[in-house]
Design brief:
Blueprint lengths: L1 E6 L3 E7 L5 E8 L3 H14 L7 E6 L3 E2 L4 E2 L13 H9 L2 E6 H12 L8 E4 L7 E5 L2 E3 L20 E2 L2 E2 L2 H5 L1 H8 L11 H9 L3 H25 L3 E4 L1 H21 L2 H5 L2 E4 L6 H14 L1
Parallel strand pairs: 1-4, 4-7, 8-13, 13-14
Antiparallel strand pairs: 1-2, 2-3, 5-6, 8-9, 9-10, 11-12
Helix pairs in contact: 3-10, 6-7, 7-8
Length: 295
């Protein structure tokens, strides 16, 4: 039996799945104060009738000490400071539990169940409000020495630019949903502070200033992806929320930069595709953590 815990800043999901990852039951509730949320997580696990032989996968935003099973101080989870969630789950319910940051967990989910299925070398980028990343190399998740591998969103692409990852001019600053909003500030008539969604709606209406922002972001996206292609030589790059919804506004300039910057042979071997799991990503990421650790 697999039990998955997806711990988000606004909501949590607890799911029961078989050993192949097929979800059998899902429980959801809002994320509130740390003590209340933990108690609701434990109550939900109890409702799924664990038998002590289950494997529990826990997906949560970082920073984490994944090896020790401790949630440190994620910015989207106030007061979750040094929470030993793995030890507590195992103490209460037996079995084995494993903690993983949400970007790596999502990479596993897309690799096992989604757009990366069948690959041996895959890069996943969240491409959502932020720009987290996960790497599948030679058929295994590459986590790095401290579990922080794949965080290309932190890489500075230019001396100045929108702030992402607390760094001006970072890849996240130019390409994430939050970065797009900052890139568009003061540039769209009637929308002084547009969200990424509003920017996409303006582009749909043919607003030239909105289209220009998307094209600019697409160029930076292409440059960042070219770095990943040249260094890692993946067969597939899977891009999350923003690309999944609005990739058509990014595609032309992204491709132009890829053609200009990436090694031709490596680029020809790499597909760039939207993520496939959609709203199921959170639940499936937690299941994927357990399934991966069972292997």
């Amino acid at each position: 039996m697999i039990i998955g815990l997806d711990i988000g800043g606004t909501k949590c999901s607890v799911v029961k799945a078989d050993d192949e990852g097929h979800i059998q039951k899902t429980l959801r509730f809002p994320t509130t104060h740390v003590a209340e949320t933990l108690e609701r997580l434990f109550q939900a696990i109890g409702q799924l009738e664990p038998d002590g032989s289950q494997t529990v996968g826990i997906a949560c935003g970082g920073p984490l000490d994944a090896a020790a099973g401790v949630v440190l101080s994620p910015p989207n989870l106030p007061e979750w400071d040094g929470v030993p969630i793995v030890a507590e789950v195992e103490r209460r319910f037996g079995g084995r539990a494993f903690l993983m940051n949400d970007a790596n967990a999502c990479a596993l989910a897309e690799w096992q169940f989604g757009a990366g299925k069948g690959t041996r070398n895959m890069v996943f980028l969240t491409h959502g409000t932020g720009m987290g990343g996960g790497l599948i190399i030679d058929g295994r998740l590459y986590e790095g020495t401290t579990g922080d591998a794949g965080e290309i969103g932190h890489v500075r692409m230019a001396p100045n630019g929108p702030v992402g990852y607390n760094k001006a001019g970072s890849f996240e600053g130019f390409c994430s949903g939050g970065g797009l909003a900052r890139l568009a500030e003061g540039r769209i008539p009637g929308l002084p502070h547009p969200t990424a969604k509003e920017l996409a709606e303006a582009a749909e209406r043919g607003v030239s200033e909105a289209l220009a922002v998307w094209e600019e972001s697409g160029r930076w996206l292409g440059r960042g992806l070219a770095i990943l292609i040249d260094i890692l030589n993946p067969e597939r790059i899977v891009l999350g929320s923003v690309y999944t919804r609005s990739g058509r506004f990014l595609e032309r300039t992204m491709r132009e930069e890829l053609e200009a910057e990436a090694l031709p042979q490596a680029l020809a071997a790499c597909q760039i595709v939207p993520a496939a799991l959609g709203e199921a990503t959170g639940c499936m990421s937690a299941v994927a953590v357990a399934k991966y650790r069972m292997s």
